[in-house]
Design a protein that fits this description.
mainly alpha
Length: 130
């Protein structure tokens, strides 16, 4: 018989292997029991439950807002017509410049000025009481 050969046969684990196997099983069982007791204690803790509930509510609100924003963007892209599909094929833009909204603000200022001019013209045409 060669040294290191398993005396109990080639297919049977050695005594040392069985001991290691039992130790690993015991550690796994202890680990599971530890976490079961920890989770049970966490479930019984009212403050912890309330904290998790609040955190999950915040996550749900954030997810809902993200979905709504995505739907608004999709409607906006759909209103732009065929250019939306072309834009979708491009890579996502980097971070917006600090003045990214300036063009939109300028457009709104021009629109307000146009509406004020139209209103003034309508008031000039209206007969004055008196």
């Amino acid at each position: 018989r060669m040294s290191g050969e398993n005396p109990s046969g080639p297919d049977r684990p050695s005594s040392a292997e069985r001991t290691v196997e039992r130790t690993v099983e015991s550690l796994a069982r202890d680990w599971i029991e530890l976490w079961q007791s920890e989770l049970a204690a966490m479930a019984a803790d009212r403050e912890l439950r309330e904290g998790w509930t609040q955190m999950l509510s915040l996550w749900a609100g954030a997810a809902s807002s993200a979905v709504e924003a995505g739907m608004r963007m999709a409607r906006h892209d759909g209103a732009r017509g065929s250019s939306a599909s072309h834009d979708a094929a491009r890579a996502a833009p980097g971070a917006a410049a600090p003045d990214a909204g300036r063009d939109e603000i300028e457009r709104l200022h021009r629109r307000i000025a146009d509406l004020e001019a139209r209103l003034a013209a309508m008031e000039e045409r209206k007969p004055r009481p008196g």
